[in-house]
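Give me the fold.
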Amino acid sequence: MLWTTLLAFAAAADALPSVNKWWKRQGSTTMLRFGCAQVVIDRLDPLVQPGQAPSSHMHQIVGGNGFNTTMTTSDVSNTASCTTCAFSDDFSNYWTANVYFKARNGSYKRVKQLGAAKQFSDDYSTKIDGGVLVYYVSAQPGKITAFKPGFRMFVGDPTRRTADPNLKRQNCFRCYSGPNFGGDTAAPCQGTNDFTGFPPSPCAGGIRSNILFPTCWDGVNLDSPDHKQHIAYPSSGPATFLNLGGNCPSTHPVRIPQLMYEVVWDTTPFNNKADWPADGSQPFYLSYGDNTGYGQHGDYVFGWKGDALQIGMDASGCMGAKCKTMKNQAIDQGKSCQVSVKVKEDHDAWLTSLPGMDSMPMQM
């Protein structure tokens, strides 16, 4: 089946009971798709730069309130008391770099995030006031092993400024061509409006980031020095969303959930080409000074309670933010979960430089 069709059905399932019934008949495929509101925006990175405050660039973080400058515990679910995510047993942390608009006069403004595309009707898509949509998919043949306490990983390369052909369908930006995000239901990183870097022209409905993590694990190490060596993409089959048919390499034989981040950036206030650089080049920057988008990356620290995620991966026919006996929470409860800002910087003012990229007044 075409995955454009699959995602179109998935998008409508919350609103249409008949579609929900269709999805459940698909058998072993499970796709947990749920929103997580922001828990904090801060210049911290406990995975890549543990103990460093401030870290080198700004991040937007969602998930459990155990997020801190240093996260050394093997089970972060024990350090968190609440989560911003739809599943109340998910105390994981998910984070990405922020996006900034650079005006023709050289000043920067943070681009705010939106919820999910309008065809998703649940509160954790439409009422999170930004944040991240998270996907966990068990659509590969064979057993899917949920992550273990202490598991961490990182995908992408913030230093990259040219396209990485190995990540063509794992790291992309979608240019929404119209209102309500253009109604584009193509599989992530496989649509006609998908780019491996920032789109070169204004996007009428905003820009969506997709970051797809590897689906194979060495079965031994919960982390590695670069936070990548213990994981791998399939060695055969399509290296795309859902990775159906992709075989894991012998060095990383254990199949793990397909984890994907989806972030919608509201670039529409900055679509006036008169405000763009005089040479017409695109004006958006990731928070570490990357105006290509090729350095897009994502960080993940696993923090589900007990076997809650394994229950979801073992289930069949689950779609969206509800699955079998997995616990949910109300959106207001999720949005009330917050972490105090450690590095005091103005997140919404016009700035003369990106935070961390130049000397900038800051309070600790």
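Residues 1-6, 11-27, 359-364 have pLDDT under 50 and may be disordered.
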